Structure to design on (395 residues):
């Protein structure tokens, strides 16, 4: 498959599936529906409808399971996106389409404005964004919700409605109702979003130019920062460089505030940024993974994305045993301490047998009688492009 399309059964996602069918051969498309365990009966009915539309178009359909960390739309959206991205990575699918439209972009901008968000956030929704190896695309951002529904009716395709989208218990629903009540302001609202988007595009182009001059990603899952070069930049720009480094090291957006990064740079290392830490090693500043934020050991499977940062792949089945992937932690082999600061080394993935480390693939360390097997049959790659700053203007 070349393209995955997120489909819920709603009007926006059905329109997206039709758009995909008119853009690529249907054999190259996979419709993905997410079951996150909420609204069980209604959601199941919606998936049945979505599967029926996919079948009518000749598109393969797949349901994936995911578990939200909490209740509410924000947690559900996060769980859906994590599930979709995880499936795409495992299946080798490099493009993921989401069904957001122009009205969604205006609503997002309004919500962030109410929250006193940064100017970058007022640009609404990016039409393209790269997360790890997957490119998220939103091809419907040029259309309004009304235009999409009219097209579905013209083509004879129905859709389902999630009643929670109209519930005033959720902030987005309240904002949506207010915006619908002022249709004369729609053009002006879109113009505001576009202006913010133009500023964001210019800003991120500048960050992309500054990045290679100030930051050096290392294969061991850390980023080395040139503290002198950062000090020569405007504070806002240097904080954005640190934010990009933190997102890459954590394997996902850290969701910290701009002020947190600015304070870290002003204070200097050591500084705890939640999932990552800013530490000093020799004359350099390093952004490394916070070992305390890494979860428990996982059974060794292939392929495996460990700690959302490292891609591990076995090219041959290992000898039968209790193999796990865990953090290096307190295990020290040879002169490892010369290679980097404690946090960077302790947060690397290691292969363990019954809790004893036998391999640290990122450092090409292979121990004992199984060492030759791991050296020959295991690859480990850090996906440092966790959150590339690619933002394109809402059309």
């Amino acid at each position: 498959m070349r393209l995955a399309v997120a489909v819920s059964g709603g009007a926006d996602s059905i329109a997206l599936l039709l758009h995909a069918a008119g853009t690529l051969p249907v054999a190259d498309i996979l419709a993905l529906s997410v079951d996150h365990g909420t609204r069980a009966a209604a959601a199941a009915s919606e998936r049945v409808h979505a599967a029926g539309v996919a079948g009518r178009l000749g598109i393969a359909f797949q349901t994936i399971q995911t578990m939200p960390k909490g209740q509410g739309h924000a947690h559900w959206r996060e769980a859906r996106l994590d599930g979709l991205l995880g499936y795409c990575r495992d299946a080798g699918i490099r493009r993921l389409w989401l069904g957001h439209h122009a009205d969604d972009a205006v609503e997002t901008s309004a919500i962030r404005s109410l929250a006193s968000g940064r100017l970058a956030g007022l640009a609404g929704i990016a039409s393209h964004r790269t997360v790890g190896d997957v490119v998220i695309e939103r091809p419907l951002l040029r259309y309004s919700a009304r235009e999409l529904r009219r097209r579905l009716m013209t083509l004879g395709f129905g859709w389902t409605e999630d009643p929670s989208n109209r519930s005033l218990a959720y902030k987005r629903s309240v904002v949506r109702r207010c915006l619908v009540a002022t249709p004369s302001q729609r053009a002006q609202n879109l113009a505001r979003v576009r202006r913010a988007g133009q500023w964001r595009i210019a800003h991120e182009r500048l960050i992309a130019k500054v990045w290679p001059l100030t930051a050096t990603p290392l294969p061991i899952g850390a980023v080395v920062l040139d503290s002198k070069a950062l000090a020569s930049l405007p504070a806002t720009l240097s904080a954005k460089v640190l934010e990009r480094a933190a997102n890459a090291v954590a394997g996902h957006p850290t969701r910290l505030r701009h002020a947190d990064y600015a304070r870290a740079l002003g204070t200097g290392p050591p500084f705890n940024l939640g999932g990552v830490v800013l530490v000093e090693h020799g004359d350099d500043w390093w952004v490394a993974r916070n070992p305390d934020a890494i979860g428990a050991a996982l059974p060794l499977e292939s392929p495996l994305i460990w700690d959302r940062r490292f891609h591990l792949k076995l090219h041959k089945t290992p000898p039968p045993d209790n193999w796990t992937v865990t953090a290096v932690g307190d295990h020290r082999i040879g002169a490892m301490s010369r290679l980097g600061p404690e946090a960077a080394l302790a947060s690397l993935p290691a292969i363990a047998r019954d809790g004893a480390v036998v391999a640290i693939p990122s450092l090409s360390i292979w121990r004992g009688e199984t060492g030759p097997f791991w050296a020959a049959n295991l690859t480990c790659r850090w996906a440092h492009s966790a959150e590339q700053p690619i933002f394109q203007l809402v059309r």
Q: What stands out?
A: The chain has a mean pLDDT of 80. Residues 87 and 196 are 32 Å apart (CA to CA). The chain has twelve helices and 19 strands.
